[in-house]
Amino acid sequence: MTVMTGREPARVLRASIATELSEFARPPALTFVRCATHPAGAAYARQVSRGARRVGVPVAEELLDEASSTAEAVGLVERLAVDDEVQGIIVALPLPSSVNTAAVVAALPPKKDVDRITRAAIGAVLAGASELAPGVATAVVRLLEHYEIPLAGRRVAVVGRSRSVGKPVALLMLARDATVTMCHSRTLDLANVTSQADVLVTCAGRPGLIAREHVKPGATVVDVGATYTADGLKGDVDAEAVVEVASAFSPVPGGVGPLTVYCLLDNLLVLARAVQGE
Ligand code: NAP
Question: Could you tell me the pTM of the whole model?
Fold first, then answer.
């Protein structure tokens, strides 16, 4: 059984980002817009900031709270949109419940949308016009490529269909000629579907959802779920049971997470270069 960690592909990508950054007169800058009190958003910003510091990308944070209105949040993103000192914006979800998330995302200009959550960004991937996808989706593909897991012609099951994780993962797999099945909370007999997959990618955010019976013997399993519990960070997979049947497994923590950070920073560089070229 191969344990697929994101560390080695992350190191390779980090080195290439550092080289590319040396070609910029000034490194592109990233700003997070996030809920001040949500632990997942804070952890996400911390993780990305740590990676950004290592390569020399400046990161700022703009915090919203339950007293923030939609108009304030949209106004903030609109200001960042026209700020020439800011090349990338990440709107970390969830935003405070007082803020209409769709309105904030709609204010995000696609050319600064590092996490590729705007309609234009997702539409471009769907149309096959762009491979620039949310960091986590790119990280899944890079991880599988690094460990030479074939995708073309293989059955891939993706558990989760969110706009920022499940759907883009499925689209990138489809673009690599996999036969993709998307599963979600209304899928009947999940184990019956996932146990037919050669590659199972789970991004539901439900610790323990994927047990031994969900996995085809010899399959590759990538855990993307990241849930903060009283016992620490948990993925979707019952790791102890699944390592007995899978041939390759990417765990949480230590799997796609570290790689996701550098995929995001790579997106920032691609966007900054595109703007420079305009
Ligand atoms: P989300 O918006 O809550 O979506 C969860 C998806 O899982 C939904 O499509 C939902 O189905 C499906 N689901 C929930 N319970 C299920 C069940 N029992 N059986 C089958 N499907 C089920 O979450 P998200 O934003 O996509 O994030 C998913 C997970 O990825 C989270 O744990 C998040 O923290 C993690 N994540 C990790 C990284 C990383 O770098 N490792 C990056 C981003 C996100 P419905 O559509 O039917 O509701």
Answer: 0.96
